[in-house]
Amino acid sequence: MANHAQFDGEVVESGVQGGLILMAASFLGVVVANTPWAGSYFSFWEWEFAGLSMLHWVNDFLMTIFFLQVGLEIKREIKIGELNKPSQRLLPGLAAFFGLAVPALIYIACNWITPATLRGWAIPAATDIAFTLGVVALLGRRVPASLKIFVTALAIIDDLLAVLIIAFFYSSGLEWAYLAVAAVVFVILLGMDQRRVVRPVPYLLLGAVLWFCMLRSGIHATLAGVLLAMTIPLQGKTSDGVEKTPLTDWEHALTTPVTYFILPVFGFVNAGVSFAGMSADMLLDPIVVGVALGLFVGKPVGIFSTVYVLIRAGWVAMPKGASWSQVWGVAMLCGIGFTMSLFITMLAFGVPEWQDHAKIGVFVGSILSGVCGYSWLRYGVSSAKKSA
C-alpha cells in the first residue's frame, strides 16, 4: 500500500506539471492557427502517411496509448485502490453518472431546434482528469484528502463512462470480420492475464494486432488501449521466480510519455481554432452555448446535487473533514473537460465549422470551471472559515 500511495503522489505531481504543459501546447496551437503559418499548420495534419493522415496518427494511435494508461488506472483503482469495494464506488459512481447526464441534457436542450448538431451531446459530459487533479493538487490542504480521493475516483469512473460512450455512440459501419479477430485476440490476452504472464513483449505484439483490427472494424481504435489495459496482470512471477507488478510498472512507464509528449501533441493539434471571420455572435451559437453551459453549469449541478441527495438520505457519509462549500468547489472543477471533450468533438462532428464551435465551447466552459472552482476553494472557502 505504501508503494501505491507513493505512485499516486507521483501521478498527481506529474499531473500538475503536465497540465501546465498541455495548457501551453494548446494555447500555442490556437496562436499558430491564427498566424500566417495557419495554412501550413492545418495542411500538415492532413498529410497522409501509411494510409492515415497525421491527424489520425495523433488521434487514433497516440491517443490509444493515452487510453491504455487510463485503462491501467481504472483497473488499478478497482483492484487495489479507492474503488475496490462496492461501498466505495457508490458516491463517486452516481456522482459521475449524473455529472455526465446533466451536461448532456443541457446540450440537448440548447440544440433541440438543430437536430444535426445533437450528435455532440457527449462533448460536455467528460471531466479532464489531468487538469482537474492538477488544480486540486495546487490547492494543497484547502481540499481535504477525502475530497481528493472522491474527485480521483469520480474522474476515473467518468473516464470509464466516456469510453463506453465512444464505443456505443461514436462507432459506425462495423466490419464484423475484423471484430471477430479482435475478439479472439482479446480472449488470448485474457488467458495470458489469468496465467499471469509478465513479459511485456507478447502483450505489445497482440496489442498491436488488436489496435489494427479495431481501427479497421469501425469501433474507434483507441478502445484497443483500454481493452489491452484490462488484460495486464496486477502481479506475477518471471520464469526464475522474481515477483513482478506489471500493471503498475506499465502505468509508471507510460506516465512520462503520455504527460509530456502525447497529451501536449494532442492539445497542439486539436486545440487549433482559426478565429478568422468569427464574430461575437458566434458565442451564442447553440453548439458553443450547449458545450460551455454543460461544462460550467451542468457538471457541478449534476455532481453536487447527487452528493447532496445521497448524504441527506443517509446512504453515504460526507467525505471526512469536508464541508458543503468544498464539495461545491470540487464539483465546479469537474467542469474542466478539456482533453476528453476535444477528443469527443473530433468524433462527433465531421464539419470543421461545428468542430471549431465545439472547441470554443470547451475552452469557455473549462476555463470558467477552472478559474471559478479554484477561486472558490482558494478564497471563498477560506473567507467562510474566517467569518465562521
Describe this structure in words.
With 388 residues, this protein is mainly alpha-helical. The protein has a single domain, classed as Na+/H+ antiporter like fold (Up-down Bundle), CATH 1.20.1530. It is 72% helix and 2% strand. It has helices spanning 2-32, 38-46, 54-80, 86-110, 129-138, 145-169, 176-194, 200-217, 223-229, 246-270, 286-312, 324-333, 338-348, 352-387, and strands spanning 48-49, 52-53, 236-237, 243-244. Strand 1 and strand 2 form a beta hairpin. Helix 1 (2-32) packs across helix 5 (129-138).
What key phrases describe this protein's structure?
single chain, Na+/H+ antiporter like fold, 14 helices, 2% strand, disordered C terminus
Report the end-to-end length measured between terminal Cα atoms: 38 Å
Low-confidence stretches: 382-388
Return the CATH class.
Answer: Mainly Alpha
The CATH topology assignment is Na+/H+ antiporter like fold
In CATH terms, the superfamily is: Na+/H+ antiporter like domain
CATH level-two architecture: Up-down Bundle
* Largest sheet: number of strands, sense, barrel closure: 2 strands, antiparallel
Order of strands across the main sheet: 1-2
User: SSE order, as H and E?
Assistant: HHEEHHHHHHHEEHHHHH
Which percent band covers the strand fraction?
A: under 5%
Radius of gyration: 21 Å
Which structural class fits the helix and strand makeup?
A: mainly alpha
Structure summary, number of beta strands: 4
Average pLDDT works out at 87
Number of domains: 1
Helix content: over 70%
Q: Which outline best applies?
A: globular
| SS field, number of helical segments | 14
